[in-house]
Amino acid sequence: MNKTLIIGASGQIGKMTTQKMLNNGQEVVALVRDKSKLADITNDKLTIVEGDLEQDFSHAFKGCDQVIFSAGSGGSTGADKTMLIDLWAACKAADYAKNAGVSHFVMVSSIGADDPAQGSDKMKPYLVAKHMADEHLIQSGLTYTIIRPGSLTDDNAKGSFQSAKPDSKDKMTITREDVASALAYAVGNSALNNKIFELFNGDKTLEKTFV
């Protein structure tokens, strides 16, 4: 059976994605800095691997067929951690995946990563990091899917999506749980190979959104 490595599995989106994939009967390898952060998830299809994204974490890829990169430095850190996690760790993950023969790499990026120059001064380091990480993945030779969600909310999942950018900024949002559902749907889905999607809450199913 295929195994999916989830990088950043103790983050909000990563943890929800891990749980959704386990609920679907899929095998998951969860890469976390501290195993205790997933102590509340018990499943015989879950393997928890410890690793530091600022160090060598290539060991986590052993035996994995797919990868989801959902790690992030978080909103409370500075540009230094953004570069180390959102850029450098993401680039290393693509390199490790290529060396491990991974068949599909799903990257969590961000709206605005296509054109960081249009972002605010505060957001530019983050958007540049996401842009460069996306470009590194695209050029890696890996089969990829890049998902660029809108502003994230902690609302309950809506279960409805759209990839077309809404007409107003306040609608350019998506719940974290809906992003997790999209990741679980995307990984290993050959119809999404080598495609980039922006993602917002809307009025479509995932099947009709990812076309």
Description:
The chain is an alpha/beta fold. It contains five helices and ten strands; from the N terminus they run βαβββαβαββββαβα. The chain has helices at residues 12-23, 79-100, 124-139, 176-186, 206-209, and strands at 3-7, 27-32, 46-50, 66-69, 104-108, 144-149, 151-153, 161-162, 173-175, 195-201. Helix 2 (79-100) links the parallel strand 4 (66-69) and strand 5. The model has no long low-confidence stretch (mean pLDDT 95).
Major beta sheet, strand line-up: 3-2-1-4-5-6-10-8
Biggest beta-sheet profile? 8 strands, mixed
Q: What radius of gyration results from the CA coordinates?
A: 16 Å
Q: Which regions have little confidence, pLDDT < 50, spanning 5+ residues?
A: none
Shape: globular
Distinct helical segment count: 5
Structural class: alpha/beta
Q: Termini, distance in Å?
A: 26 Å
What string, H for helix and E for strand, traces the elements in order? EHEEEHEHEEEEHEH
Give the amount of beta strand, in percent: 15-25%
Q: What percent of residues adopt helix (DSSP H or I)?
A: 25-40%
Q: Keyphrases for this structure?
A:
211 residues; alpha/beta; two-stranded parallel ribbon; 5 helices; 31% helix; 22% strand
Short description:
By secondary structure, the protein is an alpha/beta fold. It has helices at 12-23, 79-100, 124-139, 176-186, 206-209; strands at 3-7, 27-32, 46-50, 66-69, 104-108, 144-149, 151-153, 161-162, 173-175, 195-201.
